[in-house]
């Protein structure tokens, strides 16, 4: 295994060390999902910014997720 493999394993371990306590304590705003929903204005009722800014942020999230899916499924050709 290379150093990069160990770094990715460490990254996943750090993610789990942050996410699991957030999932267990049930407080709002402590998981990655809740942060993504906030950052990309998914819950429109809680969004204080303009509607256009919220739509733009949601489009960025959609475009990133579409690219990531294509990237993984194509073996890196996208």
Task: Give a short synopsis of this structure.
With 78 residues, this protein is an all-alpha fold.
The run of helices and strands is HHH
Q: What would you report as the Rg, rounded to the nearest angstrom?
A: 16 Å
The major β-sheet equals: none
> What is the 3D form?
flat
* Beta-strand content bin: under 5%
Low-confidence stretches: none
N-C termini distance:
26 Å
Q: Give the rounded overall mean pLDDT.
A: 91
The helix count comes to: 3
Architecture overview:
The protein has 78 residues and is mainly α. The chain contains 3 helices and no strands. It is flat. It starts with a helix and ends in a 5-residue tail after the last helix.
Spell out the key features of this protein.
78 residues, mainly alpha, 0% strand, flat
What does the secondary structure layout of this molecule look like, with pairings?
Layout: H1 3-25, H2 32-39, H3 51-73
């Amino acid at each position: 295994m290379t150093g990069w493999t160990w770094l990715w394993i460490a990254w996943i371990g750090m993610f789990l060390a942050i996410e699991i306590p957030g999932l267990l304590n049930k407080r709002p705003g402590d998981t990655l999902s809740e942060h993504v929903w906030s950052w990309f204005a998914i819950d429109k009722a809680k969004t204080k910014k303009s509607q256009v800014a919220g739509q733009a942020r949601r489009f960025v999230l959609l475009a990133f997720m579409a690219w990531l899916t294509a990237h993984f499924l194509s073996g890196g050709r996208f």
